[in-house]
Amino acid sequence: MPEYYDKLKEFGSVLKSECRSVWAEECLMIAICGVYADFEIYKVQNADPHILCTKSLVFWTEYLKRVRDVEQYYGLKKDAGAVDRDGVDIEKVHLELYGEVWPIFGKETLEGIKAIIHKRLKNNNLSHELFKDKDVIDFGCGGGRFSFVANELGAKKVLGIDFNEKNVDSANKWVKEDGLSGISFRVGTVYDCGEPDESYDVAISNGVFHIIKDPQAAYNECVRVLKDGGRLFLYVEARGGIINELQSTIVENIGHLPQRRALEILKLLGFTDNSIINLTDFFFAFYEYVSAEEIYNRLKRAGFAHIEELKAKGMDYDHGYYQRKNDSYSEHKYGEGQLRLVVTKGMSKEKRT
Ligand SMILES: C[S@@+](CC[C@H](N)C(=O)[O-])C[C@H]1O[C@@H](n2cnc3c(N)ncnc32)[C@H](O)[C@@H]1O
After folding, report:
1. How far away, in angstroms, is 243 Cα from ligand 1 center?
2. Helices (H) and strands (E) in the chain, counts
């Protein structure tokens, strides 16, 4: 354990010093992707993750040091144009980040990432009942993949809300191109979506409420627009293990690279749209890691009465319940992992009496 922490610290500081140069930026991206992939945390079950991490961090720290040596030899060092993230408004960073990443994906990627959601819902027996004939609102819809799935699964009406105009435009473009009905997207925030009280049967929030400034206000907003007994499909990250620490180290040390440049580099390196979306999120988004208990408390405070954790396996890379069951080191790796919940709004006190 201590060796891993020391290596993580060293890796962080080497990362910080190396990514000040334009040329190193390219190498850095490769290195980080390598670290991410190489950790094998996702793949290897029942093996001590600290040993894997130490090995990987030693390798990549050495690699980054070599980059510096080569640069100094050839006199290549330049300023990478650092962006100051101290004290920034996190929602401003996210506005730029998600406006750049979600609209990039093409039809094929959209179909692929929709298929993941279909599979997850099917594995949890939710395909036929969650959305059928329901009015559905999607909070922080991004490129709209979840909304499209709800539409395909028979929702009566779907509205996707996102604070980023570029996302909304790209989602509406698919609606138009495919001639879909009963689905639309518009700009709005998760704190004040502008829809009437108690007007929806189902809300979705997939990967949003762990990156916002005021999650409690967002849960309250979900409850406000849901009818009594309405349900929220929620995916949020709870406090994690090594993966969170690794991500925090990376974000702390390379988060100041210009996002657009990073995106271009990943494209040049030939990553798929889906990988680019995941990696840039990993590099730049401000995640909040709180305990599952705190997330449950927020939901209850907002007025959700019943909370159900999805138990069936989703995708191989989910850090969820099934991994906690199958891997004796999963606490170390994932902490409490990703929470995928279906929560039900209770009846208000006034209505009960
Ligand atoms: C990780 S993406 C998830 C997108 C989508 N839910 C999905 O699963 O494909 C997070 C999304 O939340 C949006 N978002 C972040 N903060 C928001 C806010 N305060 N109000 C509305 N949308 C927000 C971002 O623009 C981005 O599209």
Report:
1. 22
2. 15, 7
148 ligand 1 Cβ < 6 A: no
CATH of domain 96-240+289-352: 3.40.50.150
pTM: 0.90
Other C-beta atoms within 10 Å of 197: how many? 10
Strand 135-139 with 200-206, pairing: parallel
* Tens-digit pLDDT profile for residues 100-152: 888 888 888 889 889 989 999 998 999 989 999 999 999 999 999 999 999 99
Asked whether 167 lines ligand 1 (CB < 6 A), one says yes
3-state SS, residue 204: strand
**From CA 56, how far away is CA 4, in angstroms rounded?**
10
Residue pair 245/339 in contact (Cβ under 8 Å)? The answer is: no
Domain residue ranges in the chain: 2-80+241-284, 96-240+289-352
